[in-house]
Amino acid sequence: MGNRGMEDLIPLVNKLQDAFSSIGHSCNLDLPQIAVVGGQSAGKSSVLENFVGRDFLPRGSGIVTRRPLVLQLISATAEWGEFLHCKGKKFTDFDEIRQEIEAETDRVTGANKGISPVPINLRVYSPHVLNLTLIDLPGITKVPVGDQPVDIEQQIREMIMQFITRESCLILAVTPANTDLANSDALKLAKDVDPQGLRTIGVITKLDLMDEGTDARDVLENKLLPLRRGYIGVVNRSQKDIDGKKDIKAALEAERKFFLSHPSYRHMAEKMGTPRLQRVLNEQLTNHIRDTLPGFRSKLQSQLLALDKEAEEYRGYRPDDPSRKTKQLLQMVQQFSVDFEKRIEGSGDQVDTVELSGGAKINRIFHERFPFELVKMECDEKEMRREISYAIKNIHGIRTGLFTPDMAFEAIVKKQVIKLKEPCVKCVDMVIQELINTLDCYPMLREETERIVTSHIRDRESRAKDQVLLLIDIQLSYINTNHEDFIGFANYSDVIPLPRPQVIRKGWLTINNISIMKGGAKEYWFVLTAESLSWFKDDEEKEKKYMLPLDNLKVRDVEKSFMSSKHIFSIFNTESRNVYKDNRTLELACDSQEDVDSWKSSLLRAGVYPEKTVESESTTTADNFSMDPQLERKVETIRNLVDSYMAIVNKCIRDLMPKTIMHLMINNVKDFINAELLAQLYSAGDQNALMDESQEQAQRRDEVLRTHQALKESLAIIGDISTSTITVPMPPPVDTSWVGGTTGGRRSPPPSPTAPRRMSSGQRPGPRGAPPPPNRPGPLGPFNNSADSPQAPSRPNRAPPSIPK
């Protein structure tokens, strides 16, 4: 093999496999191994039994292997087996090993053909084996039997993928010779995860069962359906041989005679058979471990460093020590106080880059959600004018008024101010919910701690709502028409809307309703102002594509398409005019619903309101409402005055609401956690019982300590291994497109340089025995199963190149 260190590599990985299996999958380490993949009855189990030289695997019809079997073969002077779940018990009778596999499988999966991804670990010591680690996976099936679910095929494929997608896993793709190799499920799965063929080794079984006059020579020579690592052929025992208890040693001798005597295979007999396959897998797994060892060591070191601090805290830990409990209680409260404040106020360490959280979400409530709720309170224009006219008429009573009455203005303003109570209370509710969600982010909190903090938050909620409603009542108590921003009753003809900020929002949006003929949906840089919505080619704003005035526009929700991941809203004209070119609506798409809500809020600030679905009313005199010119002027005056005053009120409320909530709720909760929570915990009851270690914490502590120790031992073992050795270079790439191609619903191989020979049918034209021409393709390296050496094609009797030892 090269040196003693390299020979110890596979036993080393076996030790690591056992160590990490015993502590669970917390390390997520991809140990180098070989996964055996194939369809039902492909001969996988027979190949493994031939390696061991014993009958020890369950047999039967349908799915027999229903849990992954991690089989560790270890060269030893005696012969026995051990299971990881039966540590210390040696099985010298291999029939008992089969019975234990069946019993352990049924224990997890049930006795009626269920499957499970939980592996069974079996270690076999024998003088007849080479060091090797293989995983026998369930055979790919198409039809469920027994109580198997209807998606059994998908479940098995997903289980197989869990193993073969790892870069550290070699794939042994087993295919019977009496089927169409181009339709091999094993090779198709291997091609999906290993398209370059760096990890795939082909095994052809049942060569003795092919139709008379057919053979698999071109396949085994890697010419007809090439794989980068080539193929190795084996002959297993038939079902009759198994039923007759034919000795495996005799079967291996019969296999050797088959290859030596068969006219199509005798020239490559030394490269065929189970012993050859076992040697090749041993060499390849050893070299694969050597190649992956540096990365494997780095992963071990990084995980050890990640656990160092936690393991140090747990070392010497005494769960029943009263001083430990007091100290832990103090530390928990102090740490919670610091973390809670960081989460609310913001911090540079441990920044969440996936979603908004804590203070960022509350800020969004204050400055996007709450203003959005305020603007949504805008009433219908016609309804507003009707109410103003009724107020004017009712104030004048039987007389016809000459002047616009102040009382009508106050009545309408107060009605609008009262409507602000609902969005203000809703704002408090949203902040409360966010504070409670923030508590859920701290798994270290005990139930009693969370209860006390939540109770305090609920207490502050009622006070905050009372104060918020008081703010509205204060606004109702006095209508200040002398406010400097109020336009007043003077000079009605000059009443104009308040100036708005020039640029309200900028950002990327996708125009969703551009026809495919015109290029389909496209993304543009949008700029929203108080007067228009413009979009540009990019965010440099040099090339303007279009400018849309905001007059008579409204926003409408659009149901999310089944085929689209985008969230959509649309803009339309209330006068049924085209909004953009020939389109009646402009559909705009965002990546998330939060972005949609944010844009709708910005559009509301610009005066583009959401569409209101109003139930149709029966025809009344109100539908035909009309006013005389004098009354209409009075209504217009009060309408503009109401807009002016409500803008002042909204501005005031938008400013005071965040301040009120911050003072009465958020800052108060922070002060409570920092100054009073510990006292509340001490007064709540038994502090020792409060800090008792839970079952989950004890399990976590034990798992961390065992994992930390296993990682340290693994690094120590790996540090003693010498990885210097002579290795065989990877064979050059071959064309494996035949695995993925289809022709007329059937996969078919590319044309061979010689007359094609099907594995399952068809006569072989031309005489056998002549060596192939010099220009016939074939991969280099130890898996080149051609009788010819690639370096000297004109010398057919030259011995094949040997693998360096």
From TrEMBL:
It is found in: Cytoplasm. Keywords: Cytoplasm, Endocytosis, GTP-binding, Hydrolase, Microtubule, Motor protein, Nucleotide-binding. Residues 502-608 form the PH domain. Residues 635-726 form the GED domain. Residues 768-780 have a biased composition (Pro residues). Its EC number is 3.6.5.5. This is Interferon-induced GTP-binding protein Mx. It comes from Gouania willdenowi (Blunt-snouted clingfish). The lineage of its organism: Eukaryota, Metazoa, Chordata, Craniata, Vertebrata. The gene is dnm3b.
